[in-house]
Amino acid sequence: MGKELRKVRKLTVSMAALLLFATVAAAQRITPGTGFNQTIRLQPTKAGQEIGAEGEAMRKSARDMEMFAVKVQAKVEDGTKLLVVVSTKESSFIMGTVDLFFGVGVFKMEVKPGDPSMPPLKDLVSVYVTDLTEVLLQGDFPPPPM
Questions:
Q1: Which residues on adjacent β-strands are paired with residue 119?
Q2: What confidence score (pLDDT) does residue 146 get?
Q3: For the chain, percent helix, then strand, then coil, each to nearest 5?
Q4: For residues 111, 112, 115 and 118, what is the CA-based torsion angle, rounded to 10 degrees?
Q5: How many helices (H) and strands (E) does the chain have?
Q6: pLDDT in tens, 53-94
Q7: Distance from the first to the final alpha carbon of the chain
Q8: In what order do the strands lie in the sheet containing 36-44?
Q9: What is the pLDDT, as a whole number, of residue 27?
Q10: How far is Cα 46 from Cα 33, in angstroms, rounded to an integer?
Q11: Residue 137 to residue 29: CA distance in whole angstroms
């Protein structure tokens, strides 16, 4: 009974995290012609494959808001922290951490356009998720629509 309860709990938490990610996406609708909305799948490296890592990154830009989010799933211990790093053509930035519980974690950042705490979303080229020793997931954004 204990194993079954843990499986149900893990599934419930995973579904809650997915629902949170979907809710964030739906709540941040962008008016056509005022910005962009792109989601990419992050590909696991060999180290990422070893822990069953999967993920996606999303960037959204509108007239009055920019949002960047990363969702990660991995077979790791509760409380595991992973670092989210992004790169532009000129440099790389540490965006923050993803804390994983029940194998799922979400990093999300919203700012006003031009806020110096985040590079302009249109300039983001690559996203990396690392455990500080190895890159676990990586992906590249296509150029945003003009």
A1: none
A2: 64
A3: 25, 40, 35
A4: 30
A5: 2, 8
A6: 999 999 998 888 889 999 999 999 999 999 999 999 888 989
A7: 55
A8: 92-100, 80-87, 126-130, 135-140, 36-44, 54-61, 66-73, 104-111
A9: 44
A10: 39
A11: 27
**Structural contact between residues 60 and 144, judged by C-beta atoms closer than 8 angstroms:** no
Could you tell me which of 70, 64, 55, 63 has the C-alpha nearest to residue 24?
70
One-letter amino acid at 38 equals Q
Amino acid identity of 77? Answer: E
Q: CA–CA separation, 112 vs 115, rounded Å? A: 6
C-alpha to C-alpha distances, 62 to 76, 85, 118, 119, 122, nearest whole angstrom: 35, 22, 15, 15, 11
**Spans in the chain with pLDDT lower than 50:** 24, 26-33
